[in-house]
Amino acid sequence: REMERHVADTDMQSSRSYLPARATPTGKSVVIVGSGPAGLAAADYLVRTGHACTVVDRHAHAGGSLRSGVDEKTLPREVLDWEIAQLERLGVQFKLGVELGSVVTLEGLSRGFDVILLTLGEMAKGEGRELGLALTPAGFQIDPETHQTSLRRVFAAGSAVKPVKQVVRAMSEGQSAAACIHQFLSGQKMHRREKEFSSMMGRLENGE
Q1: Which residue among 16, 80, 81, 205 is buried most deeply as judged by most CB within 10 Å?
Q2: d(CA 192, CA 29)
Q3: DSSP one-letter code for 195
Q4: Residue 136 burial (CB < 10 Å; 0-12/13-18/19+)?
Q5: What is the distance, to the nearest Å, from the Cα of residue 186 to the centroid of all Cα atoms in its chain?
């Protein structure tokens, strides 16, 4: 992790920072409601696979819990801002200070975008009911294999579905939902990505 951070910090200070390649535009569009770790990870995946991607958030600055719940020493704000700027360079559009509710609705978003992804973080029950989606005691009810809610073109991930305490897990859920959305938009059978490995180290043997 320290090596990866060193590479990223060096790249950030470069006048020609690395920018991943984007696939050929698909003509499909996705709106992500919520700019926390799940939403940003999903935006990165979707824009790189060729889909037009817009992130909507009610706050004045993107980042969600990365900005409000992670201390400055662990995640310096200039690093977060730079990473968000990188997403903008890739083509992600951010519309901030926009709240899902009376002005911006699921119905309205569904007319302007092919798919909606909800990464709102932990919500009050009233908020979920107002959106007209099926709920569980923890959040939005989704198909665990596809991240699809009770509405066909609306997906959900992260703490909007169930509490996620680790940033890396929230990002993983965002990427997983984005992969399912890509499959949906491509006309493929949707399925959650297999976990490639476990990051938890088990008990070490004496020789190890």
Answers
A1: 80
A2: 21
A3: P
A4: exposed
A5: 19
